[in-house]
Amino acid sequence: PALFMENARKGSIVSRANSIGSTSASSVPNTDDEDSDYHQEPYKESYKDRRRRAHTQAEQKRRDAIKKGYDDLQAIVPTCEQQDFSISSQKLSKAIILQKTIDYIQFLHKEKKKQEEEVSTLRKDVMALKIMKVNYEQIVKAHQDSPNEGKNQVSDEVKFNVFQGIMDSLFQSFNASISVTSFQELSACVFSWIEEHCKPQTLRDVVIGVLHQVKNCGR
Questions:
Q1: How far apart are CA 203 and CA 209, in angstroms?
Q2: pTM exceeds 0.85 for this model
Q3: In the CATH scheme, what architecture does the domain 45-112 have?
Q4: Cα–Cα distance between 177 and 197 in angstroms, integer?
Q5: What is the pLDDT of residue 118?
Q6: Would you give the distance in Å from CA 168 to the centre of its chain?
Q7: CA distance 14 to 171
Q8: Where do you find CATH 4.10.280.10 in the chain?
Q9: What is the mean pLDDT of residues 23-48?
Q10: Sorting pLDDT into bands at 50, 70 and 90, what band is 60?
């Protein structure tokens, strides 16, 4: 009985010791596992941080786009490259680039309008030439169809006599009206003579008179 009681007492002590050890071990934090979990878990970004980062990226993208736009303008607009010698080593400001771009666009508008006017004038010239071509072809065709009509045409001598008579009549009035005392007086007299003696009705009367003279001489 004494030995049994001693063994039972020792077993109770060992059991309590194991119990206390296991309880103590379970109460101690597992630092190795927690350290491992801490390093493996990623940092969770907050909503404000995400918004701030997105705003920063958008702002940087906008600034880059504006800078690229100004760089493209400076490369495209010829006047942006024509800088003064005093500022040739300096970078053009955004205000100068915009102003030079506006000036160049206005210049292009003027050039476009000028070219459109030139094209319109050339089109009118082409139309006039086409009309002249058609008329000339009709005259040639009429002459080919009626070759004998040329025999009754006015000779070059008669044409010259008519022209000479018109010029003689005009020169008489011109010589009587023009003064050559000074260039200023000459200019004034010429304009005055043109207004008085070169009116359509006056020229018509002169031509009719010359034709009558040529006709009477031909008889």
A1: 10
A2: no
A3: Irregular (4.10)
A4: 10
A5: 92
A6: 58
A7: 157
A8: 45-112
A9: 56
A10: very high
